[in-house]
TrEMBL record:
PROSITE patterns: GNAT. It comes from the Eukaryota. Residues 10-218 form the N-acetyltransferase domain. Gene3D superfamilies: 3.40.630.30. One of its GO terms (molecular function) is acyltransferase activity, transferring groups other than amino-acyl groups. CDD domains: NAT_SF (cd04301). The lineage of its organism: Eukaryota, Viridiplantae, Streptophyta, Embryophyta, Tracheophyta. It comes from Acacia crassicarpa (northern wattle). This is N-acetyltransferase domain-containing protein. Signal peptide: none annotated.
Length: 410
């Protein structure tokens, strides 16, 4: 008698572009966030190409899970490797897991764990000391997989702030302030010089900030400061700098991916009630985001129109009275998004729960704040050796509070 409940054998192999690109794209559409009966949302990446999430990293990988008997692809995961620094002066080679997807019919069958384990083996072979990932706090299935089955440890918590460009920040007005605020754009060399100095204040930061700032998706770096402090003149670390200032850069995610909303409801004005998921898993639904009314026809193409967002990264401030400067930075970026022809709908940033600027993000009725969790796992014996014991305590005991968020992961 044939056992119809017998589980199909699944193997993990590397992604092969010619044979897999369309199939993986279809798999990801089937794994869209939300439910088809109500409101759902999914991400369109660059030309729908699976490598678009990791194209900025020299060391990168895509793995797929394939059913042996039928050849069906039922899972996918991306991996990349980067170097990060810590405020103690140590450097770490870290592998990052991005875009883990498993077909709904093959969930809870160990496919996700197999993909993660295979990605970790690749990271280890390529010199990574740790494996890193992020997930939204309320994603119980994901947190259980990584913490209980894959033995990842909690690293830190972050806040994701989301504001729709269509919601005016009328209450944020520097015109009524006794101190006028200026927003000034820095050239790339000035930005590199400034970040080289300020990133060392972070518990964890990227060592290739110069490459990020030179990417075409980085729209630029700006500083906000009070006009009474004089003009910003930064050519080196000893140049004339105002007493109080905030620096921020803007990443044009509209060029890298789009969000797309679907609904079967005839009245299409909805309040999207879920969130953004990191590690890129950074694309989800927001309570603050309102979609305009469109035709009542379920097949209306305007309902499916993709929209993008701007990501504020590299936020750092020094001096007193920074709240007004932060508000000005948000309003500037919102207006920048409004002016874009890519249908930019929201402005987003992510800050560690220990970052002083997290408390200064303007709180408006249209602003959403979502909790994000970062996890880490030691991969090599070198990472567990006595010579790295102090660094290990920081990374593996949840002592990280203020981190730099990589815009390339969005």
């Amino acid at each position: 008698m044939v056992d119809r409940e017998r589980e199909e054998e699944v193997v993990i192999r590397e992604f092969e572009e010619e044979r897999d690109v369309k199939v993986v794209g279809k798999l990801e559409r089937n794994c869209e966030i939300g439910t088809k009966e109500r409101v759902s949302i999914f991400t369109n990446l660059l030309s729908n190409h699976p490598f678009s999430r990791i194209c900025f990293y020299p060391l990168r990988l895509i793995l797929v899970a394939e059913v042996v008997e039928s050849g069906e692809i039922v899972g996918v995961v991306r991996g990349c490797i980067k170097t990060i620094g810590s405020h103690s002066g140590s450097l770490f080679k870290i592998g990052c897991l991005l875009g883990l997807r498993v077909s709904p019919t093959f969930r809870r069958k160990g496919v996700g764990q197999k993909l993660v384990n295979s990605a970790e083996e690749w990271m280890l072979r390529n010199g990574a000391e740790y494996s890193f990932l992020a997930t939204e706090k309320n994603n119980t299935a994901s947190t259980n997989l990584f913490s209980l089955k894959c033995h990842y440890l909690y690293l830190t918590s972050l806040h994701i702030f989301v504001h729709p460009t269509t919601s005016p920040l009328n209450h944020i007005s520097t015109a009524t302030s006794s101190r006028q605020v200026k927003v000034q754009k820095l050239n790339i060399s000035q930005a590199i010089s400034l970040y080289t100095r300020t990133l060392k204040h972070k518990d964890l930061y990227l060592t290739d900030m110069d490459l990020i700032l030179k990417e075409k998706l980085s729209l630029g770096t700006w500083v906000t400061y009070y006009k009474e402090d004089g003009n910003w003149e930064v050519e080196n670390e000893t140049s004339n700098v105002p007493n109080s200032w905030i620096v921020f850069s803007v990443w044009n995610t509209c060029e890298a991916c789009k969000l797309q909303v679907r609904s079967k409801y005839k009245p299409f004005r909805v309040i999207i009630n879920t969130t953004l998921n990191h590690a890129r898993e950074k694309i989800k639904m927001f309570p603050c985001l309102r979609i305009p009314n469109v035709s009542n026809s379920p097949s209306s193409s305007s309902r499916r129109r993709p929209f993008g967002f701007l990501f504020i990264y590299g936020l750092h401030g020094e001096g007193d009275n920074l709240g007004e400067l932060m508000e000005c930075a948000w309003r500037f970026t919102s207006r920048l998004g409004e002016s874009m022809k890519d249908y930019c709908k929201v402005v987003i940033t992510e800050l560690g729960f220990g970052d002083p600027l997290a408390k200064l993000v303007p709180q408006t009725p249209s602003m959403s704040c979502i909790d994000d969790l970062w996890y880490i796992k030691s991969l090599s014996s070198a990472a567990q050796s006595n010579e790295n014991e102090e660094d290990d305590k920081v990374l593996l005991n949840g002592q990280v509070r203020n981190v730099f968020v990589d815009p390339r992961d969005f």
